[in-house]
Amino acid sequence: MDASRIRNFCIIAHVDHGKSTLADRLLERTGTLSSRQMVDQVLDQMELERERGITIKLTAVTMEYTARDGSRYLLNLIDTPGHVDFSYEVSRSLAACEGALLVVDASQGVEAQTLANFLLALDHGLEIVPVINKIDLPNARPDEVAQEIEETLGLEAASALRISAKTGQGVDEVLEAIVRQIPPPRGDSAGPLRALIFDSHFDSYRGVVAYVRVVDGQIQVGDRIRLMSSGQEYETDGLWVFRPALVPVDRLDAGQVGAITAGIKEIRHARVGDTVTSAARPAAEPLPGYRPPLPMVFSGLYPVDSEEYPRLRDSLERLRLNDAALSFEPESSAALGFGFRCGFLGLLHMDIVQERLEREFDLELVTTAPSVAYRVKLRGGREATVHNPAEWPDPGSIEAVLEPYVRATIVTPGDYVGPVMELCQERRGQFVGMEYPVPSRAVVTYDLPLAEILLDFYDRLKSVTRGYASLDYRYIEHREGDLVKLDVLINGRPVDALSCIVHRDKAYHRGRRLVERLKELIPRQLFEVPIQAAIGSRVIARETLRALRKDVLAKCYGGDVTRKRKLLERQREGKRRMKQLGVVEVPQEAFMAVLRID
Ligand code: GTP
């Protein structure tokens, strides 16, 4: 089809403002899927999966639409992941589009992710169509929200569409706006092939399915392709479009959105953001903006049962087939034995991986508190990256330490500005700016150490604003900080997996709270156990776990066998997640205690 009849767009919104509901309505209105078919379609796909082992992920869909001008258009809707952990992926999805629908809830107004996504879309030069959703709600205030959009985002909002994705009211106008306001793709259809990978997944039957936006040139089945970041070459064995199931086609032209399969065995070889070109006639330059995924949060994963180590390694390798952002390397800990130091994009990504390992692979894990990547400048000009406190260099050899900072945007009702600023200050935030786009609402910007956000920052923010504030943040740079390593000694032995890196000013307080918390979490033993916090050789806090004669059957005078068994079983249950540290047993919670200390 003529590129002038193609529109590539995405929907950006704060969580829960109605992105998925609007997408469903668009599919319905264009007859791509009726609600009845939605069910059938899903079943079809499952059948397909059963027969040929193809897994399908709906991250893009092509709709056919006959506009009021009588012409037929192809509308490609590209999904964007919503969470801040995946901001780079969001940015690649945006790079595949010419326009974006910016959905704002008529009862909630502009929130932190609305702002953050809007700024990203603006960066990519997208045409932005504001859409005020949920006007059917009794507490909808579309006029105010329109004013807010105008003042916060500088978009002309008097003409903003006012819709209800739920009832369908106004949705036809959205389709017309896509055709009229969003420009058709520009690109050099005669030039060498350049296609942007904006998403990908691993399919056990076809290998990697790379979702692409063809920017220049064209690609046909059988063409040899080259991935520009690695130089690796493959032969295209399939080209697909999303209808919304994958339908095979012979070629994809400039402006089009589709998928390429080429027998690529690992997702790392066809990463999001990479450019696909032709091996025979390669493009001189890749499309701008490629970045290898940058892990920001690190944590040690150890099997509770050390015999499970090989299975943990296999499971991580399996996960990595489908998750280009997951990194891991073997690590050993004096306290926990053999495990892996894993790198994640953020906390959500970390949770997802840990949960999948436990659920899908049935592994029992002890995870250490997450840490960030510090850049440590050593005397003599060397520099080391440390993402495991246990590898912290000798303090005497350290010249300076740099830690990752994020820029955080917090949108809050005006009444809570005080507590929000207090919280940010307490977390070593550096004030950047504040605006009141409308009198009732403030946008507060701070630069914060990422390490301070890993602690319970989001929970605290929600609690000091009674749930009203929203938060978005992005990594900006590493900055210098006065950081020290806080060690924990249990029964006189340093427990490497409990060490953490803290700001010097907070070390005393943190050490104090940490030993108190550990005292609560570690069950009493048959002997007295000292718990100490130390910086270098200086002990800064100490608690003592009193001795206990731990005989669970003591209370069970004689008789009842079932009751005895129950008690013994309960004791065994309690033991499951413990690690034997020397002679002391330490439960999983203790390793995460570092996190929940204010
Ligand atoms: P995530 O998928 O979590 O990012 O959220 P989303 O932005 O996709 O929102 P979703 O479409 O899941 O909608 C969130 C909630 O709002 C759901 O309970 C919807 O039923 C509801 N909702 C969406 N649009 C409307 C609307 O126009 N009116 C009303 N009353 N509710 C709506």
UniProtKB/TrEMBL annotation:
Signal peptide: none annotated. SMART domains: EFG_C (SM00838). Gene3D superfamilies: 3.30.70.240, Elongation factor 4, C-terminal domain, Elongation Factor G (Translational Gtpase), domain 3, P-loop containing nucleotide triphosphate hydrolases, Translation factors. It is found in: Cell membrane. GTP binds at D16, H17, G18, K19, S20, T21, N133, K134, I135, D136. Keywords: Cell membrane, Elongation factor, GTP-binding, Hydrolase, Membrane, Nucleotide-binding, Protein biosynthesis. Its EC number is 3.6.5.n1. SUPFAM superfamilies: EF-G C-terminal domain-like (SSF54980), P-loop containing nucleoside triphosphate hydrolases (SSF52540), Translation proteins (SSF50447). One of its GO terms (molecular function) is hydrolase activity. It is a peripheral membrane protein. Pfam families: EFG_C, GTP_EFTU, GTP_EFTU_D2, LepA_C. Residues 4-186 form the Tr-type G domain. It catalyses: GTP + H2O = GDP + phosphate + H(+). Its main location: membrane. InterPro entries: EF-4 (IPR006297), EFG_III/V (IPR035647), EFG_V-like (IPR000640), EFTu-like_2 (IPR004161), G_TR_CS (IPR031157), LepA_C_sf (IPR038363), LepA_CTD (IPR013842), LepA_IV (IPR035654). Required for accurate and efficient protein synthesis under certain stress conditions. May act as a fidelity factor of the translation reaction, by catalyzing a one-codon backward translocation of tRNAs on improperly translocated ribosomes. Back-translocation proceeds from a post-translocation (POST) complex to a pre-translocation (PRE) complex, thus giving elongation factor G a second chance to translocate the tRNAs correctly. Binds to ribosomes in a GTP-dependent manner. Belongs to the TRAFAC class translation factor GTPase superfamily. Classic translation factor GTPase family. LepA subfamily. This is Elongation factor 4. It comes from Geochorda subterranea. The lineage of its organism: Bacteria, Bacillati, Bacillota, Limnochordia, Limnochordales.
